[in-house]
Amino acid sequence: MPEQEQQRKNAATSREDFEQEDATPGASGEQGVHLKAELDDLLDEIDEVLESNAEEFVKSYVQKGGE
Amino acid sequence: MSVDKILGLETEYGIVHRGVPDPDPISASALLINAYLDQVSAASRGPNAPRPGWDFVSESPDHDARGFITADGRAPAIEMHMVNAVLTNGARYYVDHAHPEMSSPECADALSAVLYDQAADHIMVASMEAAKEVLPEGQELVVYKNNSDGKGNSYGCHENYLVDRAVPFEQVVLHATTHFVSRQIFTGAGKVGCEMPGSSRRQVPFQITQRADFFEEPVGLETTLKRPIINTRDEPHADPLRYRRLHVIVGDANLCQVATFLKLGTTTLVLAMVEEGMLEQGVRFADPVRALQQVSFDLTLRQPLLLDDGSSATALSLQWSYYEKAVKYLERFGSKKVGGATAELVMERWLQVLTALEQSEHSPLIGVVDWVTKQHLLTAYQERKALSAGDIRLAAVDLQYHDLRPDRSLFARLGAETLVDERQVAAAMEKPPKETRAYFRGRCLEKWPDQVVAANWDSLVFETGQTNLQRIPMMEPTRGTEKHVGSILDQCATVIELLDHLKASDPV
Predict the structure, then answer these.
(1) Phi/psi class of residue A33: alpha, beta or left (left: φ > 0; alpha: ψ in -120 to 50)?
(2) Are B355 and A19 an interchain contact pair (Cβ–Cβ within 8 Å)?
């Protein structure tokens, strides 16, 4: 089935291309570091942001079904 | 043959009225929307200006794509008449059941749809702020972009795609089912716990999607009971001889822009491949509903799904297969019907996300895929606070991930990747997309707000000052664009001039 083989080859090539790109430090690496810093900041202040009474908040969040 | 993949989203948001003892979600939703509409109208046209209403004349939600009409199909009109507005960006903003809902304007590609989804979220933020102005001290309306209250009640984020009527519906059902079950690995918004009868949070502490728990049938017309993976509502809002509108109810609402982009972009490509007859032989799940739930429960993405010929496949392998075929589709047919240059970006992100999921490399997916982002946040929080797996605070973090108040939203504080910028979003709150008939709708509403007396997806009704109201049909979603009618709309000073021009040239 040459068609299928060609298909897999194409996909494999494009996957390799992607992995090579990913190996060089680039946007996604920086994005990861940036998000980690954001998460640390968020965890530091999460008690100020989160609803103070978690149990009450979760229990009272009741919606009617939709659609 | 594939038709231009015009698409859109309909999002029902969760709503909480804080500071009252016995909140009523229907009046809260109405108050939210009215507060926004009053503010916008007062800013542009002075107080108490009339608003164009929605026109139900061409709605037919009880028509089934399998070719029959149900006798007990529910008409949508009665409860929705309360608040039902059409905006200058071409969207519809209304109360549906007990939720505020935004139906986006028709968009020409997935990136445009992401932009109008962001505009919808920003309109919710503006609406919450407008409501605060009119509510007594101590009261507040809060909007959540999620799909479940954690107690067995669900509300939807529906997608719509224009599909060639000539394609056998069976082919659409076959491949859309396979795609909807398997795409959950990047479309899931994540959820603490499980809402299926008889299951517990101990059995399923966290799952990939908000919605999988609520589906009971492979195919059907319902949206609120016995929800089907494939909804067969046959209501094209366009020329019914040329088009179907595939109405998709199975997806989650996403906060991550890339997740919304991929949800819409990959589905566009799968449907175009079905239309071109590239996918005739597909796989069939032995039990599609069970497969949907298996994928949602399996955070390893390794569990094989049983197929009806006795073999098995994973969600990842099914997605790789569609990805590989989409590469071929674009080589053979180009990207013209599937969003042009946007389709190339879909392919790039699809590859990136599948590769990272396959390698269990989650860090590049934070801020890109919601369930991964939420799980990461939950794990970090649980560790920081040394919480047990069943701690109620984890469920609170889950809910607050979806809170749309900028100062309270846990998602917003994570600084996720964006595909559209704030300036574009601000413009999209007021201006329609240029590439579909939404352009004509939006521009007419902006220019002649007092004379558009009713609007819906496929027509506008004008009050001209003469005896009869004039209905302008817009049965072709790819017309009425800036290219078709932009200069006519610029030239015409009055509705009568516009109607004369349209009669002479018929561009809508």
Answers:
(1) alpha
(2) yes
